[in-house]
């Protein structure tokens, strides 16, 4: 079983091309910095306004300072969440037994940048998918609420999420403590001028009969503010996620098949830095062998139990 921690590379360097949002393909030689489209995705990391750029090393230094004051008394807990934490809120995952891709393998194209940018039919289907999606209507479930409870109990918590549904924040997690690795489905971004607007407004235009609404500023192609396959992650958000994975004492991967890189490799990185690794997921993952504890039970009941033990200082318990 391969662990891809090395693919993240040194976070102070520009994010290499081999670390786009993609499946576990082998690392290639380093190539030029991020493409303009990928670099332009202003993921809200909650620390600084979208669009404001600081060097990765500055972000890391600032982060280390904040962490040292916050973690003086209690160990930092990192929670990497994936689509499985939100299935009980009615949002289907991609790769689970009821996952979108098992039902419709073509659906992967709808979230692949190259297809999206070159094929108007794919864009029309994407907008239909967004219109029909439960994502914007969904409410947090017991697992999201348990994460917020842990944070409110005084334990230093950072959520690194692959989800684009915003449910951690709706459940009350402070925005600055949620790192949205794959962006958000609640906003829309122009691929040409980078103008950002609300998803609701774009969906109203689709409902009113425009199957592929264009940017109101420049006429450019609009997409959701999510990171599609073929795009790179926001380097600042990834840098901070790496810092969290390296600094935490407990790393809980929940509801993720741990197949999407580079997010999945954060689990390996945390274990390498001595964190206790707990995996809560119904199906096996490539990182189970590395884990100190694997819980293969329904998340909305299993995660609260795990987090109660963490809050009680049990470090997650188990073997
Ligand atoms: N809610 C969302 O925002 C959402 C939904 C679908 C996909 N996505 C995007 O697609 C990517 C998919 O990757 P992923 O690794 O997050 O998800 P995934 O679909 O690859 O894996 C989800 C995993 O969760 C498990 N699971 C699902 N429901 C569960 C439950 N109730 N209890 C226990 N286990 C359960 C499944 O067995 C599966 O292994 C994400 O990175 C994300 O960007 C997001
Ligand atoms: Zn535009």
From TrEMBL:
InterPro entries: DHS-like_NAD/FAD-binding_dom, NAD-dep_sirtuin_deacylases, Sirtuin, Sirtuin_cat_small_dom_sf, Ssirtuin_cat_dom. Zn(2+) binds at residues 190, 193, 215, 218. Residues 1-58 are annotated as: Disordered. Keywords: Metal-binding, NAD, Transferase, Zinc. Its EC number is 2.3.1.286. It holds the Pfam family SIR2. It is an enzyme of class 2 (transferase). Residues 53-313 form the Deacetylase sirtuin-type domain. Residues 29-44 have a biased composition (Low complexity). The active site is at 182 (proton acceptor). One of its GO terms (molecular function) is histone deacetylase activity, NAD-dependent. It comes from the Bacteria. This is protein acetyllysine N-acetyltransferase. It comes from Streptomyces violaceusniger (strain Tu 4113).
């Amino acid at each position: 079983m391969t662990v891809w921690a090395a693919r993240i590379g040194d976070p102070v360097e520009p994010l290499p091309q081999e670390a786009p949002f993609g499946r576990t393909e082998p690392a290639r030689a380093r190539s030029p910095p991020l493409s303009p489209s990928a670099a332009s995705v202003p993921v809200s990391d909650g620390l600084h306004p979208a669009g404001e750029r600081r060097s990765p090393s500055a972000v890391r230094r600032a982060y280390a300072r904040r962490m040292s004051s916050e973690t003086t008394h209690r160990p930092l807990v990192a929670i990497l969440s994936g689509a499985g934490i939100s299935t009980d809120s009615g949002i289907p995952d991609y790769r689970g037994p009821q996952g979108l891709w098992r039902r419709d393998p073509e659906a992967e194209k709808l979230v692949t940048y190259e297809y999206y940018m070159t094929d108007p039919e794919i864009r029309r289907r994407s907008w239909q998918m967004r219109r029909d999606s439960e994502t914007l209507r969904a409410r947090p479930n017991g697992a999201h609420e348990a994460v917020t409870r842990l944070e409110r109990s005084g334990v230093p918590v950072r959520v690194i999420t692959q989800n684009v549904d915003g449910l951690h924040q709706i459940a009350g997690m402070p925005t600055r403590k949620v790192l949205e690795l794959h962006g958000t489905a609640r906003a829309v971004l122009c691929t040409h001028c980078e103008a950002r607007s609300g998803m609701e407004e774009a969906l109203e235009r689709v409902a009113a009969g425009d199957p592929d609404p264009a940017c109101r500023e420049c006429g450019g192609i609009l997409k959701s503010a999510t990171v599609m396959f073929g795009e790179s992650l926001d380097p600042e958000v990834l840098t901070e996620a790496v810092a969290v994975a390296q600094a935490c004492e407990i790393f809980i991967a929940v509801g993720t098949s741990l197949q999407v890189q580079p997010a999945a490799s954060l689990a390996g990185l945390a274990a390498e830095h001595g964190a206790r690794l707990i995996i809560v997921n119904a199906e096996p993952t490539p990182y189970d062998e590395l884990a100190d504890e694997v819980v293969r039970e329904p998340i909305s009941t299993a995660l609260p139990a795990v987090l109660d033990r963490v809050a009680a200082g049990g470090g997650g318990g188990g073997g």
